[in-house]
Design goal:
With about 290 residues, this protein is mostly helical. About 70% of the residues lie in helices and about 0% in strands. The chain folds into two domains: about 55 residues; about 230 residues, MetI-like fold. The protein is globular, with a radius of gyration of 25 Å. The mean pLDDT is about 80. This is Carbohydrate ABC transporter permease.
Length: about 290
């Protein structure tokens, strides 16, 4: 075997070894969380649980499901994700398309305003005052409207729209198609990779809505999953379920906390392997082609 080939083999083996070890370190905490959520109260209290429980106990999950709090938070999170992502994509794609059209006279001022928001922002307190003044406090719309679009995503999608050959748009114009028709019938179908990528990014961000929910939502009935998770795990209010539980005996608080973590993370964990390719595409989306 040539020396260069032997060096490449050793180098690649070391890379795989390091990456495998890093993956294992990342996976072990999640496995431990799942194990604690499935372990019996006796095993958790005794401290004998290492990696996987000896006996499985679903009492924590039953206790959570017997209340309406978790499903209410799940419904709120789904609403924020679906409605928020729809608004995000509508505003982002429409604004990016307008900015990509050279015939639009206000294109440069609009781009400068968008770029300005990337460099400077009003800050947390002015934003809070605006949300309060507009009557959005204690409303799920407070998590959607203030973050309707990302300036960076608009600029990247604009670059993607500009990569569409102008002759295609000119042909549609000659055939009598107006700007909105060109956008819906020509531009969007040709931009499905970009739309899928940004939809995924926006959806994950909306699913993980946390800080804005703390600021604008004071009613527990409006909490998304991330706020419920905070109350149960960080604040230590594992008994938050007890007010609506049908069972009298509450399982060990730590098993309830871990079960909440698993249930809140499960949808994203299930969907991510199927959507991973769009994250990879997002790394090179809008890049300069040589």
């Amino acid at each position: 075997m040539p020396q260069s080939r032997r060096f490449d083999l050793i180098f690649n083996s070391l890379i795989y070894l390091v990456l495998g070890f890093a993956s294992l370190l990342t996976l072990l905490p999640f496995v431990n969380v799942v194990a604690q959520s499935l372990a019996s109260t006796k095993e958790v209290v005794s401290g004998k649980l290492i990696l996987w429980p000896e006996t499985f106990d679903l009492s924590s999950y039953k206790y959570i499901f017997n209340t309406g709090i978790f499903f209410t938070s799940l419904k709120n999170t789904l609403w924020i994700t679906v409605v928020g992502t729809t608004v995000n994509m509508a505003v982002t794609s429409l604004t990016a398309y307008v900015c990509s059209r050279g015939s639009f006279s206000g294109r440069r001022p609009l781009l400068l305003m968008i770029l300005f928001t990337m460099l400077f922002s009003g800050g947390m307190i002015p934003t809070f005052l605006v949300v309060k003044a507009t009557g959005l406090m204690n409303s799920l719309w407070a998590l959607v409207i203030p973050s309707a679009a990302s300036a960076f995503n608009i600029l990247v999608m604009r670059e993607f729209f500009e990569s569409i050959h102008e002759s295609i748009i000119e042909s549609a114009t000659i055939d009598g198609c107006n700007d909105f028709g060109i956008f819906v019938r020509i531009v969007l179908p040709l931009s499905l990779p970009a739309l899928a990528t940004f939809t995924l990014f926006y959806a994950v961000g909306n699913w993980n809505q946390y800080f804005s929910a703390i600021l604008y939502l004071n009613k527990s009935g409006l909490w998304p999953l991330q706020i419920l998770l905070r109350q149960v795990v960080l604040v230590g209010q594992a008994d938050i379920y007890s007010a609506m539980a049908n069972e009298e005996i509450m399982p060990q608080p730590v098993t309830i906390q871990m079960a909440t973590v698993v249930l809140a993370s499960l949808p994203i964990v299930i969907l991510y392997p199927f959507l991973q390719k769009y994250f990879v595409k997002g790394l090179t989306l809008g890049s300069v082609k040589g």
